[in-house]
Design goal:
two-stranded antiparallel ribbon; 470 residues; disordered C terminus; mainly alpha; disordered N terminus; single chain
Length: 470
Amino acid sequence: MNTLTHRDTLLAVRRWLILAVVSMLFAGLLSLMLIIGRLPPFSGWLTDPMFFRRCLVVHVDLALIVWFYAFATALFLLLPSGKPSKRSGHMALVGAGGVLAMVLSAGFEGAAPVLANYVPVLDHGLFLAGLFVFGASVVITLFDGRLLAPGAGPTILPRAAITGLKAMAAVVFIATLVFVISFFETSRALEAEVYYELLFWGGGHVLQVASVLTMLVVWLILLTGLLGREPMGRRTSGLLFGLLVAPQLGAPLLALAGTSSPIYHTGFSRLMQFGIVVPVLVFLGLCLRAVWTDFAAGKLGGRGLLDPRLVGFLASALLCVLGFVLGAMISGSNTMIPAHYHASLGAVTVSLMTVTFALLEPLGFSLGTGRLPAFARVQPLIFGVGQVIFAMGFAIAGAYGLGRKAYAGDQIVRASGEVVGLVVMGAGGLMAIAGGLLFLVLTVAAWRLNRSTYNRSSRWKNPRFTPYKN
């Protein structure tokens, strides 16, 4: 059994994971405000759409940027390393300061919300500084000796996941380079909406690949713990990770063509359309084949099918495929677009939520006994089903032409189908929020339960859902 006992590494992983969870807490609270702003008749009661736009900006950045990449950074720090240092833990605190600045800036009336795709912002110095500080803290942490370290050292990760996390870090570096090039290629004289859309368009697309790579790594962690073996060979997984990274190597060239050029816009769209789907579907197919093989051989059994690792994986896989389908159905600027990305991002989120419970014991936490483990069993199911209903509601409303990025008094509902879609969206959203809040309650409870008994020399064990022994 692989073990890792270095306290600095343990502290760094815990700090980055806590930052990710806290960001989800605030993102969930803001999402509740956004759902209320969409639902009739409440949308007519609240007449300040600017308030909801500010909430939307902070919500998206917390749920899409901070949650994903703080968590991905925590996973990256689990890679084998010969020389653990305190820098990674310090960077987590720096990143937390940046996140705090982002949240506080929403209280400034002069912070104009700009709903740019991928990275919406508040056009205010404090928010932009906070976003930069968080991003820099992630990049500095990922720029680590673990990138070049051989994969033979002690780790709690499946060996196939090591290549995936290094690929994720490489894609984050590519996205950073694209952001830098785009900054110098975009005229600051443009209106804020146009400026930030052009600035974040390219790098934002590349970051989606980093999120997908993180999700695939989590699938490997969950299924390896469930099956007792890796669902595919290291060479196969490495090839698929490489197929996801390879197209992104041309991303800086697209940015160098100029952010106002047609190739900049269409090029990154094509990279996403044709560079993600096939490798992910092949990866998913191999994972499903491994699960089916063990099920057919009687190795899983009835209790194995109810294991939260499998439930979380299947929920993530369903949302991932749904995101692909809804993305193919996009035509025009309507709520089919948020239906697509809420399904796609929900796939990543439910996988991260599920693996959090698998990492509790290795990080020195535990849900103990009693009701908490029982609640943890159903949490991925509640969130996953809620997110599917939420995305389908958006899709129904979008099929009838409901415009996106409209809240409160700005929202105009013309057809009964749009109302049905919004009601379905609201019901699914509330269910997903319930699942998200349950996740937060469980993680906070695990932290409080072990706060007084945490042993600094705690051994790192293979991740598993210890309360759910088959």
